[in-house]
Structure formats: C-alpha cells, structure tokens
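Q: Predict the bound structure with iron/sulfur cluster.
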Amino acid sequence: MTAEITERIRTLQREKNAVILAHNYQIAEVQDVADYVGDSLGLAQQAAQTDADVIVFAGVHFMAETAAILSPDKTVLLTDVDAGCPMADMITGDQLRQFKSEHPGVPVVTYVNSSADVKAESDWCCTSSNAVNVVEAVPSDEVLFVPDKYLGHYVSTKTEKKVTTWNGYCPTHSWLSPEDIELARSEHPNAEVLVHPECRPEVVAVSDHALSTGQMIDYATKSSTSEFIIGTEIGIIHQLETKNPQKSFFIASRRLVCPNMKRTTLEKVLWSLEDMSTHITVDPEIAGRSRLAIQRMLDVSAHTVKAGNG
Ligand code: 13P
Ligand code: SF4
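A: Predicted complex:
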C-alpha cells in the first residue's frame, strides 16, 4: 500500500512539477517520500531556491507561510491545514507592537516559529541553527527576542548583548527535565547528550551540546561517538538512524512528541497533490515586510556558512 501511494505521489509530482519538503520531526514514511528533509533553516533555504512550481510542505503552518513569503510566485501547499505551532501562537502582531513600544528603538529578532504578522513587525528572523549568529550581526548592543524565552535565554549565554525575551515556549520541548537526562545517562553511560535549545535552561545545562535538528544530525554523523541521547522531537530519530545505521540513538523522554508535526501522513501528502490543498498565501503587504527580516537571516547564514561557522 505504501509503495502504491508513493508511486501515485511521484506521478503527480512529475505532472505538477512539485517538490516535497519535510521537517525532521515528520513521521518516517513522510520523510522517506520527501525530496528534502531538514531543519527550519534548510527548509527555508530550499523554498527560496527551488525551481519547482509547487512546494508541498510536510511540517507546520509557519514553515509553509515562510515558504510562501520567500516564493510568492509558487503554489505552497500545507499537508494538514490544522498543523500549527503553539509557540508561534504565543505572540500576535498587536502584542509585538506593544512590546516594541515598551522598548523603543531596540531591534527585534524573531524566531522563525512565528506568524507572518509577527515577522512583519520584526527586524530580523532567526532559526535555532543561526540565532546566535543573527543576534551577533544585529548592529545594536540590545535586542528583543520573541517568542521563545528558552532559545532567547540560550542565545543570551552566548553573547555579550542584552537579550530581552518574550514569554513563549515550545510545549513539547518543555516536557523534558534534567531528571530525564540523568536517567538516560545512567542507562547509557557512554552516550553523548544532544538537546535542542528550545529545551529549558536547566536541561541544556546538563547536556553536552544544544543544537538545531539539522546540526544534531551533522554532529552525530561526523562524531566518533557511537551512542547518543537525543533531547528533541522523536521524529528526528528516523533521520539519525537512516544516516548512521551503525550508531545508537536513545530518545531522552517518550513525551518528546509534537502532535502538530504528527498530523501529516503519507496519504495526506498524496491528497495535497491531488486536491492542490491547502494552499497557503500571505497578504502581499505583510509578506513584503516579513521577507526583509527573513532575507536578512538567510544572508547571515550564507555568510557564516562560507566562513565555516555553521
Ligand atoms: P529546527 O529543526 O530548526 O531545529 O526547529 C525545531 C522546531 O521545533 C521546529 O518547529
Ligand atoms: Fe512548535 Fe514545538 Fe511542535 Fe516545533 S516541536 S512545531 S516549536 S510545538
């Protein structure tokens, strides 16, 4: 059945000149049918560069919205219209305007996990893989960082700049506790602990490295270590195991499941292409303002990758 659905997806892809982009947290079958699987930065870069006419996004709403902002001439489809991100919903454009008015003149760095309205009110965007580099690139000693207080806190430990955070967080990553890490370490004493910077600071403090999902895969692939405890959404284990069949990966907690990332199935990828749904569009005026903030981030990443900083 899976092979049959995959075949139908491939036929429609050819007919419609479509590319399938999937986040590392998607279920294994969806990752396996995608043309590109990656972290939020990689997905945004792919969306900006692709010459496909249609982008099928297996992820959550803000990711498809970012793709639509970067490629306004393309048709961007989200595989499940209800796949949102609770952290992105923790700040609105109105709330950000109010926050800015309380800190006049301080530039705003916005995590890509946010709505287009919020990005349009921002000076810079970032993802978890380039947040430190972006904050360093802002020509100011102080920034407002929204919506993720934990990523913002992580950045503040890596820069001299003053980082004032909004009170948002990822419910999935916030489940993870230092006790979970301790238990996993006692069960796998030779393993390195890799966690996402969306985790709480006390979890980052007891881990070996805080990395974006794409950085985790790179790190585990290049490392000479053969066992890893993974503190991020469970879907990433499939990418880690596929790229490193000889290594062992242990999820730090069974609670690390994002219900929104798990809404997409292989069937939904097929239905998206059959029905050309759900088409994600962004108001051109809002898209124009958010594009500036996203483009600044892409420019910083292009520069830092060339300089070898990741
Ligand atoms: P990255 O894949 O960019 O690390 O993002 C994690 C995440 O939570 C996306 O929603
Ligand atoms: Fe949002 Fe967290 Fe799910 Fe990522 S893992 S989409 S930040 S709720």
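A: The two ends are 40 Å apart (CA to CA).
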